[in-house]
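Honest question from a wet-lab person: if I give you the sequences of every part of a complex, can you actually get the arrangement of the whole thing, not just the pieces? Trying it with mine:
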Amino acid sequence: MKLTQKTILRSDELNCPSCVNNIESNLKSMKGVEKATVQFNSGKIEVEHDPELVTEEDLLASVQQSGYSAKVSPF
Amino acid sequence: MTSFNQYISLFKKPAFRKKVLLTVSGISILIGWFFLGVMDNPFAGNILMVLAAVVAGYEIIHKAWLGLRNRQTNIELLVSIAAIGGLSIGIYWESAAVTFLFLLGGWLESRTLQNTRKTLKSLVDLVPETALVVRGEETETIPARQVEKDMLVQVQPGGRIPVDGKVESGESSVDESAITGESIPADKRKGSQVYAGTINQNGRIFVRAGKAGADTTLAKIIGRVEEAQDAKAPTQRFIERFARWYTPGIVGLSVVSFIITQNIELAITLLVIGCPGALVISTPISVITGIGRAAKEGILIKGGEYLENAGKISALAFDKTGTLTEGKPRVTEVFSLQPENVLSGHEEIELEEITEPEVLYWAGIAESGSEHPLAKAILEKARNEKVIPEADTFQSHTGFGVSAGYQENKILVGNRSFMEERNIHLNEEGLQHVEALSEKGRTVVLVAKNGELLGGIGLFDTIREDAVSAIQKLREIGIEELVILTGDSDSTAQSIAGDVGIKTVYSRMFPDDKHKIIKQLKADGHRVAMVGDGINDALALTDSDIGIAMGAAGTDVAIESADIALMTDDLGKISEALRLSKLTLRNIHQNVMIALITVAALLAGVFSGEVHMAGGMLIHELSVLLVILNGMRLKWMK
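Yes, you can. This is the full assembly:
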């Protein structure tokens, strides 16, 4: 059985709505990420992923690679 | 080596990297200028300009490339093409300026947007991390979200309350502005409800925990605000669709004008000034700020769409009189009726006089088993005068009254038709009493014992103190049509409407009738808002364009379902909510206008040869900042 986990990241650096697509596609291109949605207005990034394949650090690195810093958030 | 690695990892941090790139590129441009202008050394000057363009361009090209890989043409792509084009035709300083200004603009946007997102962040930070839990004689500090239901939590004066719950002991006043937007502290004593994130001011209290962590009212509010900010307003959706075609369109325009004019500088200048930067940010910035500001005042707006709708409201219906009144009826009059001297045979029976306390006493006994608000009011009044025993038997006749038995007596309390159905008739004196009270807007119940009328009780739900001024404010902000829809009797409804200054009243309404009237208002061309208490009128609220729930703090249903939820019962917040919506809507329109006018003016400027690449970029970035600053005005705008 595959276990997916939902992790919420927050970034307050997002500055143009078009970057949202970059972050989303970058996250989705990782193996083990099932779903990724980025909300521009609130800066909330929701990722459903398999924690065995992708760790929270991996997610943060991916967002960083798209050009933004993020933090893991409890809700 | 370690320090080098540290530097590399620091450089990976986007915010830091941007600052470094900006500084290096900026300094290069300054020194480059010095060489070009003062030293008259174009070679060194141009090299520095190329360096500046490459340094600042690194970040931009990186993002353009990411976009291309995802098959998207983004703003960064336009700027990259322009900068590379500029370098290849030898306009070095212009290329440097374009990349530097674009990066600087992006960084400033980021900074100002961070500022706007702060409202939410400050809400998240309100909840204390830990709670002091009392276990017998001991206390223990545990993470706030691990507090379980029914644990006892101690809150020191000056401390923040970590959970939702009820005060078990102690007295204090609590600043609830985080939840309700109300700045006057609320007094709390045993049994009072308190919320996580509010500030305990002057006394130590013990709170019996109800909900903690993500279940608290504050967490629900945060969730709502966030969803609301992300829910795209129709304008935003439209602009995003537009932007998808716009960017390739600008590239096309640039190519076409190159083919026609053979002027490559003109073509790449078009790319730069055509950026839709201000346009795509125009709506989100207003929506984030508007919704954040409203949340701070205890007004939860469900999202951009509702904000746009609420800004257009022209008619408002109060669903039930309870929204305008305290919702707590009180006994205002009691009258007693003397039994008519019945001649039984020849002797006149000496009858005892019936007193008003007696009327209350028997009514109180009959109502002791009822949960109806009128019953509670009668019972409270009766208990003030005398100890009221419980009825032995009790039956409720919904919409009419109650019948009860106590010892040998049969008591009836209810309206006139309830009595008449049971063959108990009002005499002339009674009729006069009832009519006089009805005229004053009272709800009248009659009391009978063993088939004989004892008297009656007048009840009145006091109008909220702020009702008159709230109605006035609604008129001032341009709500033309104000109506009351109520299930109450005509006289009661008319009296309340008259007192608050509303002319149109529909009384004795059933839910279906209300639905028809809302429909009619819509057919007359109105955008209709409906105000209710959000709990038992959830359905009625959905009929209208905007459903407003009052007193939503603590009721999850209202927070989650209403289009606009007002955390307190403060009627003045209705006009405030609609006013803020109107302000936000106007702000969005202003922003879209700023963006469109700037692009149009720049386009005209480019084709007439007045605007060049660096100047165009400067004006473009200024327009983006102008839009953001205009949106941020909503934070403090009156």
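Two things worth pointing out. Chain A has a mean pLDDT of 83. The first strand of chain A starts at residue 5 and ends at 10.
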